[in-house]
Design goal:
Helices cover 29% and strands 26% of the residues.
Length: 299
């Protein structure tokens, strides 16, 4: 397979569609040296991008937190993302918008940098082994922790915040696990390297309060699905030693979608009825909502 810089197709780059291999930045781009970039991850189903506007609204908010403004409106970004999908003749795909500080100024100070925006899309299947939808993922605990909100812009989807996630994902995979569960700076359960986490006990769903990590769009979607089913859901502090009391566990994210967890270290879980129901509900919703969007656009 071609590397990501040598694929065929088109990328939307600062307002226009250009050939994929022409979408390049300079070595002295501020974002490369100082992490001054924000991004989103979206999935398209049946030719429509799920929660498109919500993702682009969050992109704007993330940029604001990093002290820069995106020079395109949410509506313009929505249209651009759809244009990218069509230009690349994709129906089921992953879509990646990113905004970053350019090469006009080097150093910590960056007020004179141009804000660049690009959107790419490509065919990307299941994030985890599809077989794990039946058997559940095997996870381990990460060593790095999600930072204190007083030390990092934790509520932005900022590129720099994923550095420790990459380290922990690599560490987990080298040890034979699918991913790592990260604690927060206080030692509480936080999230996985790219997904939020949920637990089930006695028919009630529990999930960590997102006070130092992203309140994911898929997370909020699944919470809504649980409420539609009348399942009680509690956001609370969850300590690692509490995991032995839960019977089910699952994770959520745009890339991961909804995936069951079989184990976290020595803690074991079953792929139970609540997890299976929410997996099915999410699949039905993504295909129904995108189909409805397509019909509305045609009308």
């Amino acid at each position: 397979m071609a590397t990501y810089d040598q694929r065929d197709g088109y990328i939307w780059f600062n307002g226009e569609l250009i050939p994929w291999s022409d979408a390049r930045v300079h070595l002295l781009t501020h974002a490369l040296h100082y992490g001054s970039a924000v991004f989103e991850g979206m999935r398209a189903y049946n030719g429509e991008i799920f929660k498109l506007t919500e993702h682009n609204q969050r992109l704007h908010k993330s940029a604001e937190i990093l002290d820069f403004a995106i020079p395109y409106s949410v509506a313009e970004l929505d249209k651009a993302a759809r244009d990218v999908l069509r230009a690349n003749k994709l129906t089921d795909a992953y879509v990646r918008p990113i905004a970053w500080r350019g090469s006009e100024q080097m150093g910590v100070s960056a007020q004179k940098t141009k804000i660049n925006v690009a959107i790419a899309a490509w065919d990307w299947g299941a994030y985890f082994d599809p077989a794990a939808r039946e058997t559940g993922l095997k996870l381990t605990f990460g060593k790095y922790r999600r930072p204190d909100p007083a030390t990092a812009p934790v509520h932005s989807k900022a590129a720099g915040l994923y550095m420790i996630c990459t380290i922990e994902k690599h560490r987990a995979e080298r040890a034979g696990f699918a991913d790592a569960v990260m604690l927060d700076w206080r030692g509480r359960i936080a999230e996985c390297t790219g997904a939020n986490i949920f637990f089930v006990k006695d028919g009630v769903i529990y999930t960590p309060t997102p006070d130092c990590f992203l309140d994911g769009i898929t997370r909020r979607t699944v919470i809504g699905l649980a409420k539609e089913r009348g399942i009680k859901l509690v956001e609370k502090t969850i300590m690692p030693e509490e995991l032995g009391g839960f019977t089910e566990c699952f994770i959520t994210g745009t890339a991961a979608e909804v995936m069951p967890v079989a184990s976290i270290g020595d803690y074991q879980f079953k792929v139970g009825d609540i997890t299976r129901a929410l997996m099915a509900d999410y699949t039905a919703l993504t295909h129904h909502e995108t189909a409805r969007t397509k019909v509305a656009a045609a009308g």
